Amino acid sequence: MRAITKLLLPLLLLMPMGLMAQELKGADADTTIMIMVEEQPEYPGGMKGMSKDVFGNLKYPNKAKEEGRQGKVIVEFVVEKDGSISHVKAIQDEVGYGAGEEVVRVVKNMKPFTPGKVGGKTVRTKYRLPVNFELYEDPPAKSTKKHRRNR
User: Fold this and answer.
1) CATH number of residue 101's parent domain
2) Is residue 148 a part of any domain in this protein?
3) Least crowded by CB within 10 Å, which of 5, 56, 132, 149?
4) Would 142 be classed as within a structural domain?
5) Which pLDDT does position 70 carry in this prediction?
6) What is the C-alpha to C-alpha distance for residues 43 and 110, in angstroms, rounded to an integer?
């Protein structure tokens, strides 16, 4: 079986420009984490770049493969004002056998984002990333031999 992981594109809600940003209050402005912002954090190369980096580094846990386990892992993290990633944790793991820990490992090693903004100022932003783990049967191998015609 071939293991495939898919990055579910985070759904972006189209919001009117005047909508207020939502935030999780910290002790001061430097610790506040925004959950809705005017400008979303962006990964280098956009979602295509993120998919490439995540799938290029993610390993389907062997035990999960052997047991035929599939499902979704959702990881939550904070994109800091400088674009770095912090507070990474798996908040849902339908696969088990280390799949959540594997996604956390990959996210911790991702490139810095362009940070989110509110009112033109960079802010700390909460980000959720869903990753699907799916198993597929390998298609039969095609013969590479060339057939000769009898003449």
Assistant:
1) 3.30.2420.10
2) no
3) 149
4) no
5) 95
6) 9
User: SS3 of 108, please?
Assistant: helix
Establish if 150 belongs to a structural domain.
no
Q: Is the distance from CB of 34 to CB of 22 less than 8 angstroms?
A: yes
For residue 18, give the amino acid letter. G
Domain containing 108: what range?
A: 2-11+21-136
pTM score of the predicted model: 0.73
Q: How many residues does the chain have?
A: 151
Structure tokens at 84: 């770095």
* The two three-digit tokens of residue 10, written as one number: 């985070």
- Work out how many domains the chain is built from and give that number: 1
Q: Is there a domain that residue 130 lies in?
A: yes
For 20-65, how does the pLDDT look when each residue is reduced to its tens digit (9 = 90+)?
Answer: 345 555 555 578 899 999 999 999 999 999 999 999 999 999 999 9
Residue 47: which of 103, 130, 135 has the closest Cα?
130
Strands 2-7 and 121-136: antiparallel
